[in-house]
User: What shape does this take?
Amino acid sequence: MGNLYIGLLHYPMRNRRGDVVTTSMTSMDVHDIARTAKTFGAARYYVITPLKTQREIARRLRGYWTEQERTRENTNRGEALELVSVLDKLEEGILDISDREEKEPLLVGTSARHLDERRMEYEEATDQLREETKPMFLLFGTGWGMADELTSQLDYLLPPIEGIDEFNHLSVRAAVAVTLDRVRGSGRIN
Assistant: This one.
């Protein structure tokens, strides 16, 4: 069985006009996605931003829950936040996974847009994790989605999460939860 790794990217992302930008990291994304990643058995959760001040905030948040709060309260939030690694760029996450696993990860992205090239269905991702030993690095974008320069580096893209009407702009925290449930939930991977 392959291990699952999660990455939340803040660059290169698109803004509502389609410009390539660096998005802001939010403390809720760090905290809530860590809890979801732990719930669904991710080996690591990488928060990836080129902004030094944003990385410092993420590290302080992680430290609070893994060191300070855990010693004062009987809480398991620190256990989830221990999964968090804060990085400058995607390549650092790929290298870290390659070092841990002794093989390069399969890069699988998510998007709210229909990008049919290199499409991988959720069931295929589940099967890949169950049947292969290669790790999967599941990447999530922020803002208005990953820039084309990033999606072109991916091995596969999962289909969009669709609701019941035209509106399709979930928070990344919600998208991570739905995606992990589809890929790892419902007892599909033991």
